[in-house]
Amino acid sequence: MESAISANKQRSRQSGFRRFLHKLNEQKYLQAMAIPGVIWMIIFNYIPMYGIIIAFKEYDITLGFNKSPWVGLANFREFFADERFWLIIKNTVGISFFKLLVGFPLPILFAVLLNELVSVRFKRTVQTISYLPHFISWVVLGGILMNWLSETGLINIILTKIGILKQPIAFLAEPKYFWGITVVSEVWKELGWNAIIYLAAIAGIDPELYEAATVDGAGRFTKMFKITIPCISGTIAIMFILAVSGLMNSNFDQIFVLRNPLNADASDVIDIYVYRMGIEAFRFSYATAIGLFKSIIALILLLTANGVTKKLTDKSLF
Amino acid sequence: MKIKSSVGDKIFNIFNVTLMLIICFLTLYPIWYIIVYSFNEGKDAMLGGIYFWPRKFTLDNYKTVFSNSDITTAFMVTVARTVITTTLHVFFTAMVAYAFLRKELMGRKIYMAMGTITLFFGGGLIPYFLLIKSLGLYNTFWVYVIPGMFNFYNLIIFQAFFRELPIELEESAKIDGANDFIIFTRIILPLSTPVLATIALFVGVYNWNDYFMGVIFINNPKLQPIQTFLYKVIAQTTSNQMLAYAPGGIATRNVTSQSLKMATMVITTLPIVCVYPFLQKYFVKGLLIGAIKG
Question: Which residues of A are less than 8 Å from B180 in CB distance?
């Protein structure tokens, strides 16, 4: 009796396997298209994820990921005790916070004002021009900034001419100006680009709403604040979640170009420190631990921002 | 339905148009400035006072830059990298996106879940660096190409587009005996030019503008992209090595490291600035698909 059941099970398992093979054969082209993508992800996404274990090891390049000896949380403890720890956290969060404070509302304002332009042609031209800086690399922009912000640069010439400065300042050599430079240059680069999504959201608003409001005697500002902005609040919420979850990212490309030893006290953010410790100083395990610390905080921020926004506005990423 | 505009409206319009003009000026001026500087004699430019137009027009900066074999090699590396990686990325990512979208694909849920995780979590710089080294990609041209072939975020954008295509086309092709790969290349791809153009622009711009891979994965100057070259020139405030390449006479006369930097910046930026207005209508659409689905 029992053996009959198990034989039966085996048979059904066998036929299940055969069905699987049959199905696989049927979709061999489809699988041949899908599996290279899976393999790519395993190699370039999942092996590095596995490589995170070296944060808990003392990585030895001759022994590799697996055989290097475990050290537990020693790398993390060392980072928390690092004399630059608080400075790095302050710089990372500080730069991102000011980018959020200034860089988040401005594209919304820009989109709303752009939408109020009467001439369609002028509007299009402004839009096209405003996207342009997005396509310029940080290396080129960094080059312009270094030229303009140097002691003989354009900014100093203008500021001394109109009497704001008595002595020219080497702006990039002083930590106290660094945050401001990163915020302003990022806003310059991404203002128009970041406005695209709000412009599209505005374009999607039902024109009847405006017509009805006009009949009711609403002025331009009333319409802006009572129709346009509430109608795009969903988009604003989603963009806000994404912006907050990126708080631990302070735009590596930008800071890497603008940093120098003189402004290190303001430009050492987590990503830069990972680079300095890992690639420059070859402290692979230590740098990986710092990177992991960052990823965990970023994940917590994402989940928190998502949760809070969901509660407040009913809109969320997931 | 138009209502007569009030005085307040008029003032607002004037204010708004003025503000937009100021924004346009602030956006264009830094770019204009490097162009002007690059066409001016270097030594003369150092005296200052050049704002809107070259004072002593010259092509010497460009002649010097183009006679520098390091720059021309770096430029060619960037062109090759951008063209090859972008083409492969668009084809490969679209192919995987299409396969992952088909409902009958076995393992579909697992594949998609694997990809979704990569959107939120990664290994970070150091494990990635060690991987590239152990794969033997370090200091080869392929480090630009193979790791740049695929991106799950772009896959989502592709899928959002493919979902809108009429499914009947695939079915009728299947009845005619076409396999999935032929359906993808002959039916899906030709219908997808808007999304292909969008992703091509994103990936192309990324590859054109990236300097960091050249900094960490390449130490052979013959393989470094132009952005990395420019980064090195800018970061080491002395770019006199560039001057050393200048053909006799020009350098001593009026080319400076500053004016050479400016000319290199213009050359580096020009190709993209020329391309993007034509692709504008595509990328606006593509960005929206990405933002809504992502």
Answer: 27, 29-30, 33
Domain ranges of chain A: 1-56, 73-313
CA dihedral B243, B246, B248, B250 (to 10 degrees): -80
Assess B22–A contact: CB distance below 8 Å, yes or no.
Answer: no
ipTM of model: 0.90
Is the confidence at residue A173, as pLDDT, over 80?
yes
* Domain architecture of chain B: domains with CATH: 69-245 (1.10.3720.10)
CB pairs under 8 A between A and B: 247
Check residue A140 and give its pLDDT: 96
How many angstroms separate the first and last alpha carbons of chain B?
38
What phi and psi, each to the nearest 5 degrees, are found at residue B40? -105, 150
- B202 to chain A nearest CA, in Å? 10
CATH architecture assigned to A73-313: Orthogonal Bundle (1.10)
- With b for 16 or more beta-carbon neighbours within 10 A and e for fewer, the B185-200 pattern comes to eebbbeebeebbbbbb
Q: Mind listing the pLDDT tens digit for each residue in A1-34?
A: 556 666 666 666 677 888 888 888 888 999 999 9
| A8 near B CB under 8 A | no
Nearest CA in chain A to B17: A117
The DSSP result for A278-314, as a single string, is IIIT--HHHHHHHHHHHHHHHHHHHHHHHHHHHHHHS
Model confidence pLDDT, tens digit, residues A278-289: 999 999 999 999
